[in-house]
Each structure stands twice: as structure tokens, then as C-alpha cells.
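note to self — DONT lose this again. spent like an hour looking for the file last time. sequence + predicted structure for the chain T wanted, 226 res
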Amino acid sequence: MTSAFTSRQNPPLPEGWEKLYSAVLSDALDAAGVWNQAMTSRMRPLDDALKLCGRARTGQYMEVSYVEEGVNPYELEIAIVDDLKPGDVAVFACGGSSRIAPWGSLLSTATRARGAAGCVTDGMVRDIMGIRELQLPVFHTGIAPLDSKGRGQIQAVDVPVIVDGVRVTPGDLVFGDADGVVVVPQAVEATVLQFAFDKINGEHHSINELRAGSYLRDVYARYGVL
């Protein structure tokens, strides 16, 4: 097991990230030639009204069917949550397991207290009413009352993981909203963000002209945005 954290300095979140949305980031990734960075329709927010934007902190789970005597099965789970920094997103890779519910109200409360941004997991979540009260953005592939103890355990932290089919590397930009979750690799982040903000500006002009009665074909010809 990985048991120690390395010191790190994440880049700041993009200025004006509140204007972003998952669809425009997905389009910008396509334009940059980086495909398959949007998670599937299985990945849903607990609260459609909340946006998530932050830097990935990853945990890799595996299914188990026992609790080893004398071993704290929550050791790394606790350690990574306690180590979250402002703007971090806990990204827990569970391989789409329906047996593991690694995220609940206690982890959410600790995450909120650390100033972290939220959680994305392709496992289950539980205690959802308590999480919603916290107004913490949490994205999941299912809801179940199952404790992870005796069913799943983190084997490594801060390593590249696959979550709902998308590779996530520590420090990657993770963005989620009502449409879903998109991951922007750091290597292409500057290019993708430029494409995204340019498209948002074009869409602003397009919407205004469409509201004024312009034809979609003419607006698309002018701005190339759809």
C-alpha cells in the first residue's frame, strides 16, 4: 500500500472557471484533439445545481471480501481526506463496483472543513441527505447504504486511475455540472481553456442574435459555434 504523501503544488484554478460548463470543455477537448475525457451518463451529481471544479487527488480501490484482523481498513481513506487542500477533488476509482460505497456524510463534512472542492467516484455514495445539506458537489455512479469495510479498500493514493472509463492523473482539472464530469489533462489545459473561453464568447454573441430573430444558419456561418 502507498502510505505517504508527496509534497505538491497544484496550479491555481482557472480564472473565471465559474463561466465554464462541462459541454464547452468537452467540445474544447475535442478541438484540441483529446478525446474520451468525458465520463459516461452513469456519472451523476447528487445536486444538479452545484458545479465542481478542482484538482484531482486520487484513490484506487479494490474489492475485498474480508477485514484483515488488526488492520484499519479505513487507513488510507482517512489519510487522503485529512490531506485534502483547498481546491482539491477526491477522485475515488472503484471500477464501477456496486459493492463499494466509499463516500458518505462524514467524509463530506471533513472535505468541506478542509476547503476542498468535492468528490467524484465510480462507486456508490450514501448518507445523501446529509451530503446535500452540506452543499458539497459529489458525483457518483450509484446510491447504496453499503459501507466499504469488508467490501472495498484503497490500495494506493495519488496515482493515475481510471474512473468511469476516463484516465485521471493527480493534479488534472476535474469539472462537473448537471451534464456530467469532464477531466482536462494538465498537458493540454492551457490550450483547452483558451478554446473553451473563446467558444463561450462566440456562444454569447450567437444567443443574442438568435434571440433577435436571426437564422441559425446565418449565425453559425458568422461564428462557427453550435
